[in-house]
Design brief:
Length: about 170
């Protein structure tokens, strides 16, 4: 593809790209930045575009990937990692020991209430709080994904009702 046609095609999709960028970011300034970054990346990688293929699809993919990468970078930058020793239980004062017993009782009560729930609701919920993803639970229990989500949601609601007066 010659450079002039590529630039013409890029200019033609600018307004559509602007709307897509705003849809992704929900902020006008960020949308403008994303549009600019996408246009620059497309121009830098012009030789990688295969002529007579879907130009809009190619440029939208570039924009989406830039947005995802920027989002991941932002999340990574905002993540705080505490490198201090986790010695709270070793170094805590003796006055907090009474709360430890109370917290164990709370855990036992919650455990008891969860195990009183019907098996169809209890198993997906326990798997979820053990760290399984919804999709993994659905595959292991051979259930539809929506069923797993609704059972976990229902279990949470039941626990809130059953434990609301508990304290």
């Amino acid at each position: 593809m010659d450079t002039a046609k590529f630039r013409r095609d890029l200019l033609e999709v600018q307004s559509e790209l602007q709307r897509f960028a705003y849809k992704l970011t929900a902020d006008k300034e960020e949308a403008n930045d994303l549009l600019q970054e996408t246009s620059l990346k497309a121009l830098d990688n012009m030789e990688k575009y295969t002529p007579d293929t879907n130009f809009k699809g190619w440029i939208y993919t570039i924009m989406r990937n830039i947005f995802i990468n920027n989002y991941r970078k932002e999340v990574r930058d905002q993540t705080f990692v505490d490198h201090t020793d986790n010695l709270f239980h070793i170094n805590h004062p003796r006055e907090f020991e009474e709360y430890a017993t109370e917290n164990n009782y709370d855990s036992k009560e919650i455990y008891r209430v969860v195990h009183e729930l019907p098996r169809d609701y209890r198993i997906p919920f326990l798997m979820h709080i053990s760290g399984f993803k919804y999709r993994e639970i659905a595959e292991r229990l051979n259930l539809p994904l929506g069923t797993v989500k609704s059972r976990i949601f229902f279990t949470r609601q039941q626990l809130q009702k059953l434990l609301k007066d508990y304290r």
